Amino acid sequence: MTGGTARGRSALLVTGAVLGLLGTLVALAVVGAVDQRREPLPVGFATALDAERVPPEFAPWIERAGRQCEEVSAPLVAAQIQAESGWDPDAVSPARAQGLSQFIPGTWATWGVDAAGKDGDPEPDGVADPFTPGDAIMTQARYDCWLAGKVKETGTGGDLTRLVLAAYNAGPGAVEEFGGVPPYPETQAYVTRIITSMADFTGAARDETGGAFGDRVVANAEKWLGTPYAWGGGGPEGPGRGFAQGADTVGFDCSSLVQYAVYHASGGRLLLPRVSQLQVTVGEEVKPAEMRPGDVIGFNLNGSYDHIGIYVGHGQLLHAPKTGDVVKISDLDDPYYADKPRKVRRFG
What we know:
13 helices; endopeptidase fold (from Nostoc punctiforme); two-stranded antiparallel sheet; Lysozyme
């Protein structure tokens, strides 16, 4: 638990800084406040560890940690360790966070587990030591599982893995306060970094929807037809409360709908950038004449690629158009879009 993160400080100190960074959030935020009328999304995608991607002396402990509760997987634990300490069991941060999992002393005093001995001994030695890899890894799992329980108690809907990571960084109280991932730039970056990194440590991943990738993209977007447009709202965890002109609305904007659909079509393995201007720069470039369902189309409406949607076939676009509108399907020959420059990208 790195002392330099929000969870190592008072949330009150973070809140003041966040208010001054609202402009940054336009590009970075995946605001929570998920519509509670929707069913929560499944627990995180990654369950099986690719043991060849972690130091061999830590792999058995990480796999054991991933069995402590269903909400916390081995790839999640591995991705956190990489982010927290870079696999250095002797790491000490400027804020005195210690060991592989970077627990500050006060937190370790509460949560520390004696799971192993020093020098790789698999038997407990009577001392809970943050610098002993087995102790650190099992304590991290214990704490993550506790956070998962706290997040579930709040009734906050959304992708539970993302919410656990947000609680790990900013505290479960912040997740409850904002009804999802808090709009702190540090927390947003932390969650995105860990979720993206999890794919590097994942073995066999689940594919619960079946069908071609593009069909899954369309299916994951179609289920939100009729959902309000919310500028700045929504993300991989579902609809979210927007800000600025979207501040009173729970829903998606154009790029968050695309981000959600691709993320869930990939089983959580692919997290696109948050804004449309960046989404049109990733993936495989496709000629408009060769589009197929599930491809993503970005439109240059006002000097930049500021609108984006999903091709569903038959000359139609599934998208979140604008404030006051809802997620819907429109014709691509609509004069508003027909003569605008466009880029088509394919994922999966």
